[in-house]
Each structure stands twice: as C-alpha cells, then as structure tokens.
Write a structure and sequence with these properties.
GO cellular component, one term: membrane
Protein name: Drug/metabolite transporter (DMT)-like permease
Number of helices: 14
Pfam families: EamA
Number of domains: 1
Distance between the termini: 32 Å
Shape: globular
Radius of gyration: 19 Å
Oligomer: single chain
Order of helices and strands: HHHHHHHHHHHHHH
Keywords: Membrane, Transmembrane, Transmembrane helix
Transmembrane segments: 12-30, 36-58, 70-94, 100-119, 124-143, 149-170, 177-197, 209-226, 238-256, 262-281
Largest sheet: none
Amino acid sequence: MFANLSDHRKGLLLTTFGGLVLSMDIPLIRLASGEVWSVLSVRSLATVVAALSALFVIRRVSGSVRGALPGWLGIPVGFFYGLTTICFLLAVYYTTAANVVFIIALNPMFTALLSWIFLKERPAVSTFITMAVMIIGVGLIVGDGMEGGHLLGDALSVLASLSSACAITISRASSRGMGFASLLAAALPAAVGLYHVVPVGFSIDHPGWILLDGGVLMPLSFWCLATGTRYLSAPEVAMFYLLETILAPIWVWLIFTEAPSNMTLAGGAILILALASHSLWQARVKARAAIVAQGVAH
C-alpha cells in the first residue's frame, strides 16, 4: 500500500507521523524526573541500541545494511542531529516547555535560508514576509525569557533549531535516506552525557519513561522525519517539526498544569498563525500553477 503512494504523499505520511510522535518527547522527559546528564545519556543510549538492533535485523533479512546506511554525508548530518539533541534536552531543563517548542518553530525559517544559500532554492516573497513576522514572535518569547531568567534555555532552543535546519538541508542535498544517520547520531549526546554522569552516577526517578522515549518513540520520529527529505523539500520537512510546537505545550499543560506565560502565548500565536498563513498561501500558489500547467498541456 505504501509503495503505491506518490513520493509527495509518502513524504507527507512519514513526516506527519514523525512530528506527532516527536510531540511526546518533552512530556516523557519530564515524567522521567531525572538529572539532566543522566536523562541525556540514557535517552541517547536507548536510541543507539534501537538503531543497532534495527540494522542487525535488516542484515539478517536482506544480507546487507549498505542500502540503509547514508554514506559519507551521514557524518555531518549525524553531527548536527546530535548537537540538536544536546541543545534541545538542555533547553528543556533551563526554560519552559512552551518556550522551547515555540522557539524551535524557527526551524522552517532557518531551513529556507540555508536552502537558498546552499541549494540555490530561492524563497518566495511570502516566505520572507513570514520570516519577518516569525522573528517578531520569537522576540516576544525571548524577551519574556530574559525577564524570567530563561535566557540560556531560550538561546539553546535557537541553537537546536538552527542545528536541526543544517541537518535537514544537508539531508535534502544528498537525496539519500538519512534515517539511520539521525539515529546513530545519538552516540554523540550519549558520550557527552556519560562524560558528566560517570563520576557521580545516574539519577533518574522513573527510568521507564525515558527508555520508552529514547528506545521507541524517538527512533520512530527521527527516522520518519529524516527519511522525509527524500520525498519533500527541506522547508516542507521542517514544517512538520511544528506539530511538536502545537501539541507539546498542550500535553505539558494537561499532565503537569504548566501554563505558558501570556507573552509566550502571544509570541507562539504569532508564529503559528504566520506559518499556517504561509502554508495555505503556498498551497494556493501551487494549485494555480498546476491549473495553468494543465491548460498549457491542452
């Protein structure tokens, strides 16, 4: 059934599922209730084990893992995904969940700019307008974070967003599936976490939650989102990371009753409205172009 879908629909299906699963990341990190480096190392180690297990199964079934591995470009992609994980998880501990996911909504903007610079895919005027509006929204959130003592966490969120955009752009340029690059990249944050944990020992109150997160949900999410670049443009893939932006604060509010500040909500609303308007406009433009193309063909 999946094989019969068009490439665009495959990409939409993969990235939608990946974004939905990703939205559970922050709630599970919070439920684990552990020290930051312990959570980082256990979550990342679980992802590496899941990736190696999947490769083992693929080798037993097909006799080779060469088709599943991303090649040399997987190294920079893996580095940026690993850096994203480190910055993201640290940000969760240094600012509110809403601030993290709303600021990471800058991902499509960074991806569009990088695609323009390195892939020569010039953004439309509407994209530039959307970027300007998004900067205003993020400015409100970061300004509120400075007053609330969350500046470090907000800065880490910006860095996580930029690093993720770098990984997506390189993945798109390679035209190869980077699913396992994103999974094996967890070795980097695992090493960083273990470096801090080994001298003092692990400290996680409920490790089952973080094992579920790192061993099951994150591998599924990372693989789907990284593989989506084979079928969709880099900015399109980045848009599906925004499912976490919309859903994660809702899960956190329902589970932990952590309500975002009014300024964070205002900035987040600006971001979501800007991106939603841009997506609808782009869909309308593509629909018009398709009609024109059909008319010319006839």
